[in-house]
Amino acid sequence: QKFDVITPAAVASVRGTQFLVEAQDARTVQQTTQGQVLLQTDQGRVLVQEGYSSAAKAGAKPLAPEVTKPAPVLQNPVSRFIDFPIAFTWAAQPEVSAWVMQVGRDVQMAQLVLTQQSQDPQLNVAGLPDGHYHLRAWSLDEQGIPSKVASHTFEVNIPRQLQGPVVQMPSRYFAAGPVALQLAPLPSGQRYLVQITEDAEG
Prior knowledge:
The protein is an all-beta fold and about 200 residues long. About 0% of the residues lie in helices and about 40% in strands. The protein has one helix spanning about 170-175, and strands spanning about 5, 10-15, 20-25, 25-35, 35-40, 45-50, 50-55, 65, 75, 80, 85-90, 100-105, 110-120, 120-125, 130-140, 150-155. The strands form 4 sheets. A 5-stranded mixed sheet has the order 10-16-15-12-13, with no helix packed on it. Strands 1-2-5-6 form a 4-stranded antiparallel sheet, with no helix packed on it. A 4-stranded antiparallel sheet has the order 3-4-7-8, with no helix packed on it. It is elongated.
C-alpha cells in the first residue's frame, strides 16, 4: 500500500516503517530511521535510505542524502536536582550550527514545557517547578538537517521555602533597570544562597 506525506515543498513516499518528516514554510526535512523513503519535488527526487537524511526547498531538487549525525552526548547527566542550577551541557559536535532542546512532562512531549534553540550546547531551566521531566536534544547542521535525538529523564526536588534573613525591596528598584547585589566575602567552603521571590513565602 502506497503512503505519501505531502508538504508545501516536497512529497515523501514511504517505502519503510520508521521515518521523520518536518515541514516549515517552503522547506521539508526528511529522516529515515528504518526502511527507505523517496523524497521528491518537481525538480527531482532522492531515495533516502535507513540512517540517512535529506532536505528539500520548494522549486529545487532535494539535497543528496547524508548520514544522520549521532545524537548529542549529555555530559555528567544528573537524574535528580536538589539544588540550583538546573542545567545540562552536551559535548561539542563537528559541523553543527545549532542545538535544539525540549523539556516536557511526558516522553511524547504532549505536555511540552519549553523548546530552546541555541548555538551553544547548554540548557539552563532555573525556574522549573518540582516534578518529573523528560529532556530531548538534537543538533542541526548547516543545512538544518537534524541529528538523532538524545533523551534523558530527570527529577526536580528543590526546597523553595525562603531561608535566612528577608529583605523587602520596593518594586521601583527593579523598574529602573538591572539590580546589583554586593555581598561580603565568605570564608573558604561557604557560599551564599540568594532567593528572589514576589512574596515572603517563597
